[in-house]
Structure prediction request, 180 residues.
Amino acid sequence: MARKESITKQMILDVAFEMAREEGARSITARHVAERANCSTQPIFRSFLNMDELTADVYDRAVAFFQAYYDEFPKPLKAPFCNLGMAYVAFAREEKELFRMLFVPEKPRKSLYEILNGESENVKAEIMKAREQGCADPGALFMKIWIFIHGAACMAMTGDYDLSDDETKTMLENVCESFL
Prediction:
């Protein structure tokens, strides 16, 4: 009878994902994952071809985590791209390491647009909202406002952003209005 597998692929992925959330993607090494999973490195390499495969799965999970975060985020603002911006800045503030892995990577796996748009087509929906509100060039509006949003989020990630949510909402709405 074969020995029962006590450390599963899912368990290893769970540990590696939590490590990425807490310590960053660079912390995901075979030795460190094994230590946190309380096992040897053997179950890791039995479950994954190599560490690149594990980190790719962690990345995909982080993308899904961001999508779920955005889907659950309140969206009360009427101005295009502002709800997306609020969620993005909040994600950077709350999930610094995942934000860094997804949106400020050394080697991007997906474009910022691909992650933001996601399966729900979040950016496309905001572009339609802008068009419905009379914006002649919603793509250009997105680029202009996104430069501001990404800068604010990077500042939030590093702890250099001290604006309240209300101040952020007002600023995003003002920026959007000025670009319309």
Remarks:
- The chain is about 70% helix and 0% strand.
- The radius of gyration is 19 Å.
- The chain has two domains: 1-63, 73-180.
